[in-house]
Amino acid sequence: MATSEVKLDESWKQALSAEFDSDYMRALKAFLLAEKNNGKPIFPKGSEYFRALDLTPLEAVRVVILGQDPYHGAGQAHGLCFSVQPGVRIPPSLVNIYKELQSDLGIEPAKHGFLENWAQQGVLLLNSVLTVEEGRAASHQGKGWEQFTDAVIRVVNERLEHVVFILWGSYAQKKASFVDGKRHLVLKSPHPSPLSAHNGFFGSRPFSKANQYLLAHGREPIDWRVAP
C-alpha cells in the first residue's frame, strides 16, 4: 500500500513509511481489493480508512482512545472509533460515554455522535481494525490491520511524551500493554458497552483525569464538549 495512495497527514506517512511498504500491508490491500471486486460493501469508505490519522497529526496527539472495529451498519463508520456520521442514531457505548462525560465534567450529552472536533484537538480516535464488511462484525480481524495500528501506538509511545492513553475494556488494555506508564498516563476501566459499563466505567472520570494530567505537564487540556 503505497503512501502516495493514502489519505492521511504527512507526519504519519513519514513515521509509518516502513509499514506502508511492508508485505503485510500489500497483502491487506490485495484482500480489500478482492473483497470489493466480489461486491462486498466495506466500511468506512476508502478515503476514510485513515481518517483518525488524517485529522490528528502525530505531533498534535494529546490523548489516544482505542476502539476495536468500525461499526458495520450502513452509514455509521467514518474512520474514528466510537464516532458515527451526523444523523445516525448514537450507539449504546457512546450513549454511556456521554453519560460519563456529563457525570465527570457536567457536559450535556450531544444530540449526535460525530466526534471529529475531539480528533481536531489531538484526541486520536483509533480503532484496532480499520475496515469491516457490512453486517459482519470483526470480519476483517487478523488481516493485518492490528499490526499496523500496533505500529501507530508504538510511534506515539516512543516519539511523544505526556500523552493520555484511555483504554476501555480488556481488548484495548491488552493491545496497548507496552505503553510506558512512566512517560505517559494510562487510564484503564471497563468498556462503556451496556454489558460492562456498570462494572467500573461509570465513575471512572477519564475526561477530567486526562485534562488534569495534560495541565500538570504544560499541555493544553481537551475541550470535551461535542460540537453542536
UniProtKB/TrEMBL annotation:
It catalyses: Hydrolyzes single-stranded DNA or mismatched double-stranded DNA and polynucleotides, releasing free uracil. InterPro entries: UDG_fam1 (IPR002043), Ura-DNA_Glyclase_AS (IPR018085), Uracil-DNA_glycosylase-like (IPR005122), Uracil-DNA_glycosylase-like_sf (IPR036895). This is Uracil-DNA glycosylase. It comes from Peteryoungia desertarenae. Excises uracil residues from the DNA which can arise as a result of misincorporation of dUMP residues by DNA polymerase or due to deamination of cytosine. One of its GO terms (molecular function) is uracil DNA N-glycosylase activity. It comes from the Bacteria. It is an enzyme of class 3 (hydrolase). Residues 54-214 form the Uracil-DNA glycosylase-like domain.
